Amino acid sequence: MLSIDRSIVDAIVAHARRDHPDEACGVVAGPAGSDTPTRHIPMDNAARSMTFYEFDSMEQLRVWREMDDRDEEPVVIYHSHTATEAYPSRTDVSFAGEPGAHYLLVSTRESDTEEIRSFRIVDGVVTEEPVRIVDAAVDPHAVQSYMFGQSPATVDYECSGR
Amino acid sequence: MAIEVRIPTILRSHTGGAKVVEGAGDTLGDLLTDLDSRHAGLKARLVTEAGALHRFVNVYVNDEDVRFLGALDAKLNDGDSVTILPAVAGGAFGFAAAAAIASHAVSRRAADAR
After folding, report:
1. Can you tell me the ipTM of this complex?
2. How many CB atoms lie within 10 A of CB B23?
3. Which of A10, A156, B25, B66 is the most buried (most CB within 10 A)?
4. Which runs of consecutive H residues, i.e. helices, occur in B40-94?
5. Contact B56 A98 (CB under 8 A)
């Protein structure tokens, strides 16, 4: 299960919309061992492609060092698919190198709704997990759960306030 | 001579969980061979069977990406710090095409750096 604040999800979706039709990518850092994403870091897609993303290696070194200095780790690694569903491609699985991270995918193929799904990718095995959006700004106990398992490709999560 | 090497989470199974290890070598290739003698299997995770640096990792000497320093032939000096990170990449495209684009991007950036 990925628990993530709604304001961070909104910022990720805004980043994905802004870069559409290119794929957008980034990280949400959190305190090491907490499994709690707290600091959103949009990254450049060095590939600037509609079908591929790649962190710029020098930007990644800076960001990874900064996380290390702050005793943080990459809790969420996200990217968008701009014409296909929010499910890891074979390329995504080949590259997945952070076994502790939640791999969040956002599909921006529909202009009015976003599909947001989260996965663990360990040793080439993809496991979908529920995404719990937390409304911390409103009430820390008010939560909604979404589960996008074995769903038809058209199950969408409607972001509020847009 | 000692070179500090920072190991990412995904490769710490080869270092007994250690985040930082030390090794020696005049080039990155030598260093990885030295490390592999104490941390078996580490080199195979970083170097392809064809003897090239793997696409799935980024390796840095101090603050430089080794792809711009000669990759496995990158020269090392005592006191250098080597950092290994998993490359973060992917996308909707098929792997072969993506790899072709990526290697093109790397060679383009390498050309820009010259």
Report:
1. 0.78
2. 22
3. B66
4. 42-46
5. no
The pair of three-digit structure tokens given for residue A13, joined into one six-digit string: 């979706």
- B55: confidence class by pLDDT, cuts 50, 70, 90: confident
Other Cβ atoms within 10 Å of B18 Cβ, number: 13
Among the partner-chain residues A64, A81, A91, the one whose CB lies closest to the CB of B94 is A91
User: What are the pLDDT digits (tens) for A38-89?
Assistant: 999 999 999 999 999 999 999 999 999 999 999 999 999 999 999 999 999 9
Searching chain A, which residue's CA lies closest to the CA of residue B56? Answer: A95
Is A38 in the B-facing interface, judged by CB distances under 8 Å?
Answer: no
C-beta atoms of B83 and A61 within 8 A: yes
For B11-43, what is each residue's pLDDT tens digit? Answer: 999 999 999 999 999 999 999 999 999 999 999
The partner residues of A123 in beta bridges, in order of sequence, read none
CA B105 to chain centre: 17
**pLDDT at residue A150 in the model:** 43
Q: Using an 8 Å CB-CB cutoff, list chain A residues near B63.
A: 61
d(CA B26, CA B54): 20
Q: Please identify which residue in the block is written with the tokens 């392809």.
A: B48
A109 CB contacts (<8 Å, ≥6 apart)?
A81, A82, A83, A84, A85, A115
A52 closest CB neighbour out of B63, B83, B93: B93
